Amino acid sequence: MTSEFASDCSNCAALCCMAFAFDEGEMFGHDKPAGLPCHNLEGFSCAIHARLSEAGYLGCVAFECLGAGQKVTALFTQTWRDQPRLARPMIEAFRQMRDVQELRQMLKAAAALPLPEAVEAERQAWDTELMVTTQALAPLAVFDPAPLRAWLKGLAAHVSR
Q1: 20 to 30 A Cα–Cα from 120, which one of 13, 29, 80, 136?
Q2: How far apart are CA 144 and CA 4, in angstroms?
């Protein structure tokens, strides 16, 4: 994974610890509804990060935001801690950005395929569109991933079997 897709928790407002719901069980040590901070959160850091596995938080260990957390945090001048009214918009932006980052990662991987020139040009155009989408909240809010997902599925025709 390239650095553009790596999580940088030190530059994030703990959005994964806030956005998602989880149920106590094999992957998580307690129940947590979406939109509320995890009870292990201290500021924007996990109080049990060094021992997540031992504490029963394998879901946290396995999660990768692909850099969405720090990208979204950078788009806001304040955080949900400073202004609680920002929780919902930050969570929604985080969810959308995570999807966009996943699609960007797939487009980067597709660059290794032996694509015809026209298809490679389309791949590059999609990549450029997604780069622009990650730079501000407005494009992120209106981006429809369905056409790109369909286009990516069509790349299977270019994979040798």
Answers
A1: 136
A2: 22
Is 71 within 8 Å of 140 (Cβ atoms)? Answer: no
Q: What 8-state DSSP symbol labels residue 85?
A: G
| pLDDT tens, position by position, 73-93 | 999 999 999 999 999 999 999
Instruction: Yes or no: say if 72 and 93 are a contact pair by the CB < 8 Å rule.
Output: yes
Please write the tens of the pLDDT for every residue from 46-63.
999 999 999 999 999 999
Phi-psi sector, 76: left (phi>0), alpha (psi -120 to 50), beta: beta
